[in-house]
Structures are given as structure tokens and as C-alpha cells.
Amino acid sequence: MKVNKIGKSAEVEFEYDELLVINAALNEVCNGIDAFEFETRVGVSRAKAELLMKAIQAALDQIER
Asked: How sure is the predictor about 24, in pLDDT bands with cuts at 50, 70 and 90?
């Protein structure tokens, strides 16, 4: 991971393997926590977590290995 810029948002570069770890962790979180306690335990809605997971998966699909 390489942090390029920090401000009101962050610009960060991840290697393919790092994105795999993040994607797998999000998958476990999204599928392992009951809906009624998801937002309390994670800090965002399940829908937002799933959108992030889908965006990371789309990036992984575009990276040449």
C-alpha cells in the first residue's frame, strides 16, 4: 500500500494481493454479520459495504496479473 495524498479524502495505491485481502475481508463481513447488527458493528450500512466490495472486485477484474 502506498499513500499518495491525504486531505478531505485519501488517495491510496494497493497491490493486487492487497486488494484481494480487502475484498475477502469485506465478503466475510457482509456475509457473516446479521443484518440487525451490521451497521452498529461495522459503522456503515450493509449496502455501502457491498458497494465498496463490488467496486474493489471490479478493479481486481481489470488488473492484469
From this structure: very high
Kindly compute the dihedral angle of the four CA atoms of residues 10, 11, 16, 20, in this order, to the nearest 10 degrees. 20
Query: Which three-class secondary structure state does DSSP give residue 61?
Result: helix
**CB 18 within 8 Å of CB 2:** no
- Domain ranges across the chain: 14-62
Cα first-last separation, the chain: 17
Query: What's the CA gap between 58 and 30, in Å, rounded?
Result: 17
Whole-structure pTM value:
0.83
In whole angstroms, how far apart are CA 55 and each of 25, 43, 62?
A: 14, 19, 11
* CB 60, CB 18: distance < 8 Å: no
